[in-house]
Amino acid sequence: MTIPFTRWPEEFARRYREKGYWQDRPLTHILTDHADNDAVAIIDGDRRITYRAFNQAVTNLASVLQAQGLHRGETALVQLGNVAEFYITFFALLQIGVAPVNALFS
């Protein structure tokens, strides 16, 4: 199943690539590049989560989601606020090839 999306105007895409905002690499690969880093990746209230801990939480959740039957190409609705768990869930879904959709209205 193909999931439709809206393309950015080519001028935006070109400019974002030139500035390095878009790297034409999956977000999960960018996270993995920083996985051995103890710098802070997420600040959520009083909590500080390092890239290493973030990547480990993502990998653990991805394994659980796969074991529960989620498969590449599927879509998953996520209803979480702007908290660390949202980003862990978002990246875990991306890691296994599931398209995350934020179902929470702001």
UniProtKB/TrEMBL annotation:
InterPro entries reported in the protein's UniProt record: AMP-dep_synth/lig_dom, ANL_N_sf
One Pfam family this sequence matches: AMP-binding
GO MF annotation list: ligase activity, forming carbon-sulfur bonds
Domain annotation AMP-dependent synthetase/ligase: ranges: 37-102
Protein known as: AMP-binding protein
